[in-house]
User: What shape does this take?
Amino acid sequence: MILDLEGLGFEQGAHLLVQRALQRLAPGDELRVTGSDPALTMHLKAWCRQAGHQAHDVDEPGVRARIVRGRADVDRWADAQRAGGPGADGIVAKPRADWGLAVRGALVESGGPSAPFDIADRDLVWAEIAPALYAHAASAQWDPDAAVDWRADFALQDDIERAVVQVMTYLIENEQAALVIPAKLLARVHPHFREVLQLLAVQAADEARHLEVFTRRALLRGGELGTSSVSGRESLATLLTEAEFSMASFLLSVLGEGSFLNLLEFLDDHAPDPVTRQITRLARRDEARHVAFGVAHLRYQAEKDPSVRTRMRAAVERRYAALVDTAGLNQDVFDSLVVLAAGDWTPAAIAKGYDAVRKLQAEMDDGRQRRLVHLGFPADEAAELSALHTRNFM
Amino acid sequence: MTLLMGAVAYDPKVVTIWSGFRAWLRSRGLPFDFVLYSHYERQAEDLVTGRIHAAWNSPLAWLRSDRLAKAAGREVRPLVMRDTDRDLTSVVLVRNDSSYQAASELAGRVVGLGAVDSPQATLIPRSHLRQAVGDQLKVRRFDVGVGLHGDHIGGERDAVRALLAGEVEAAAVIDGNHLLFGREGTIPAGSTRVIAQTGSYDHCNLTVIDTAPAELVTTFGDLLLSMSYADPEVRPLLDLEGLTAWRDGRRSGYGLLDAAVDEEGFYDKDGKVTAVEYAP
Assistant: This one.
């Protein structure tokens, strides 16, 4: 076989044609090359030397050099492996650490460094609904500037406004934890589970947006932010220290954000102004998705391995033990919720508000129990575990 | 006993390469270690005095080790070399729009060469040009990385830039760098012509001294020759070191450099450094 490079030189990409011709040959086969570039023979020899082929002079009319195909390129890819397949059906149970950042479905050269992704087991992170949830999450992103009417006209009594600000302060604190936790997990999950990374990233972006809108609402009337209690921060700190992906997801999404959904619904019902209602409604939509993934993922896991329920129980008990000596929900937050639900300072209104908050707590408890039953806990155990949940809601 | 090899730290990657090879060799039972030198002259001297058993040598350091060893009544030999160390050439370039057609026309013209101790960009091409123009050879040297025996590519690149800028009439580079400079754009396509090419010569080799522990040397050579490009553990190291396979060492490829060293008076026959402008 003769390859004619015509006037093409190696400084113009001649190696591409040579490489392509050689790829069609077996190691040891010969390729004859011709062309008119004056430096062709020299460059061909230098290139072949580096690429593991051998180029020889040849005394044959119209031929500049003879190449004996080497096997370096064959050897490089000899034991290369596909990193699963590109779609969700191409996910493997335990992706190799040395696949590193290789794209799922790529042909991966063997060897190379082991990537530091310690969460690398399908059964620990996956849920069948992850791709669909991600697609939904991506399409449901909203712009805080456009989605909220920040100029809505309303006037509140000072102490009602203060109650709103206190609740916002509490929400921001919780959302900060809810941002940091998926972000920490994100850096540990093997990128092979691409949809989980995408979902966690959007989840973090959701929380980032929530931080923004709750902060903007708190400062909308020019006041100061509210209080942050030790017990509130202690409660959130226990979430940050949970090292296991599934247990962090369980405590944060299933129990914490699940209860948070009830709280946001409560605020949507009782908020005294349209801005607070809008932002809590928008945030609630996002949180519902987070809860859905947490529940789906843990259910998937519990079906694969029933002992996961034992660990969930232990995680709740551990957290309860860590918080048993704390004061529970920030009293300022509790009182503010009552004031918002009361809407006025008459004894009758306060009684109504107080009752509404008690009802909220009951709904939270009920929601947690339902989700625990969904995960396979018997009803009595679900009730017991829900009762151990932090009094801080999250 | 540990087999001790010297290597010149001409680039930070030398540490990566030999630390990697060290781990690989030790995991296969060879007690192996290496020391780094800042230039080749001390490494050659230490090899012959037996401070190290083996040296990863430039072609010039191989010749000096050979001469020093003979003078000391000892013997060195090339144990292995890279597949990419065999049959290299250097070329003499001129600007494409110049009138030069042959090396003989460069008499009295300034030729850009590499570092004083570069076999490929100074010693061998200067010897080649001297045969064409005799004592009318004028040289402008680009001394980058003196002591590294041309392992530093900077001198060659500077010589080519000076050629393109019209500061010299010709420049000498090794064929592989000519390919590289063309592909990276240092030499724009069609801007230069090759008017002379040296005969072929060999580059680096892994030199061992006869006082080294023979069994360890044999194991060292066998292990290196057994390295496969198909092995994912060593392939990245082979890529860094620029080879796809180790070959047996050979003495036959150093004739041109040996002659050039004598012509230039770079070393005397006993391996003493006699080049006047050479201070590694």
